[in-house]
UniProtKB/TrEMBL annotation:
Family matches, as Pfam families: PAAR_motif (PF05488)
Entries under InterPro entries matching the protein: PAAR_motif
Organism: Caballeronia insecticola
Record protein name field: GP29
Length: 86
């Protein structure tokens, strides 16, 4: 599923970050290709920074009033979501 404005794919549970971590929290009522979609402030784990950090979603697309996270969005520790195929 792509964001119509940015053309970027949505971020999903398990997608990787460029710090070697992954998305560990996602919506229970929104999925793409059978995998839960991550939203703004959902958590990622970061082995580089040593903790869990929220996603800072930038998409105009929203689910129940909350921004949908996309590939390329950042986390609070500065990691970039790169997806599961990267």
């Amino acid at each position: 599923m792509r964001d119509n404005l940015s053309g970027r794919d949505v971020a999903r549970l398990g997608d990787k970050t460029d710090h070697g971590g992954a998305i560990i929290e996602a919506a229970s009522d929104l999925s793409h290709r059978g995998v839960a979609v991550a939203l703004d402030k959902h958590l990622t784990e970061c082995p580089k920074c040593g903790g869990t950090y929220p996603i800072i979603a930038t998409s105009a697309r929203k689910h129940r009033g909350v921004k949908v996270a996309s590939i390329g969005d950042m986390t609070a520790c500065g990691a970039r979501i790169i997806g599961s195929e990267a």
